[in-house]
Design a protein that fits this description.
268 residues, alpha/beta, Rossmann fold, Hypothetical Protein Ta0175, Chain: A, domain 2, 2 domains, five-stranded parallel beta sheet, 9 helices, 14 strands, binds magnesium ion, Hydroxymethylpyrimidine pyrophosphatase-like HAD family hydrolase, TPP-like, SPP-like_dom, hydrolase activity, HAD-like_sf
């Protein structure tokens, strides 16, 4: 029996200083990511311990919107001794197998992007009109896959998000607002579809999935058991809670620990 524990990383298992909350003392936190030798992401010590002791029947599958190189920075969790066999990065556009991208998978996504007219070249010209608005601080690209913006949250209204969501929805994109980042994600780049591929490849019998954002919702909903941190954007997108979905009681970095606690007890 193989149980797959597919989990988003940022704001689900690992947390920045801004998103981790204030309930946990510095000495109870471990750094899991550094940028230029500066700590940037954390888990609780207890969370790390639970993660390290997950039963061998449970295979961990990271599923992140980070690019491969951003993912590989999380050395506090995925150190030289422990590398998951598979990782889904770039929101599902890339599947790493033993650290190497599966070329046939990404080629399929590239063709689909062209067919759907949802390539970066299609999005960028449309964003010029918004670049003049005060809320857009930067427009960035995740390799050749998708566009995301760094926004000024104080100047960005719910109406603005709805307006942009509607415009891009009709063209085949999903928008996700996560703190200072606003993702414009082509629908064919989807964590859930990539997860299904890995599930079949390893012959997993059961999938547990966790995620906080709108981009995680399909994956969490289609799992046998799904977990959403209570602070997550995904919580707002659910009308009624299906019985196989749990929302954490805790928020911030403690929500990550709570999910790991439930997953580590799954077989008991
Ligand atoms: Mg997340």
């Amino acid at each position: 029996m193989t149980i797959l524990f597919a989990s988003d990383l940022d704001r689900t298992l690992i947390y920045s200083k801004n998103s981790r909350g204030t309930e946990v003392n510095e000495q109870d936190l471990s750094t899991v990511e550094w940028v230029d030798d500066k700590p940037v992401a954390y888990m609780t010590n207890k969370g790390i311990e639970l993660f390290d002791q997950l039963p061998s029947e449970i295979s961990f599958l990271p599923v992140t919107t980070r690019t491969a190189s951003q993912y590989q920075r999380i050395t506090g969790l995925f150190n030289a001794q422990y590398q998951p066999t598979y990782a889904i990065v770039a929101n599902g556009a890339v599947i790493l197998e033993n650290g190497e991208p599966l070329v046939e998978w990404s080629e399929k996504i590239k063709q689909q992007l062209k067919q759907d007219c949802t390539t970066i070249e299609h999005v960028l010209p449309q964003l010029q009109a918004y670049a003049k608005k005060g809320f857009v601080l930067k427009v960035l690209q995740a390799e050749s896959w998708f566009v995301y913006m760094i926004i000024d949250e104080k100047m960005f209204s719910v109406e603005e998000l709805e307006n942009l969501s509607n415009i891009f929805y009709e063209q085949g994109f999903t928008l996700s607002h996560q703190g200072r980042k606003l993702y414009i994600m082509p629908n064919c780049i989807n964590k859930s579809i990539a997860l299904q591929f890995v599930k079949e490849r390893i012959g997993a019998t059961t999938v547990l999935a966790a995620g906080d954002s709108y981009l995680d919702l399909d994956m969490v909903m289609s799992a046998d058991h799904g977990f959403i941190p209570s602070h997550g954007e995904a919580v707002q997108k659910i009308d009624s809670l299906p019985p196989h979905i749990s929302i954490t009681q805790q928020t911030g970095v403690l929500a990550g620990e709570e999910i790991l606690k439930i997953v580590s007890n799954y077989l008991l």
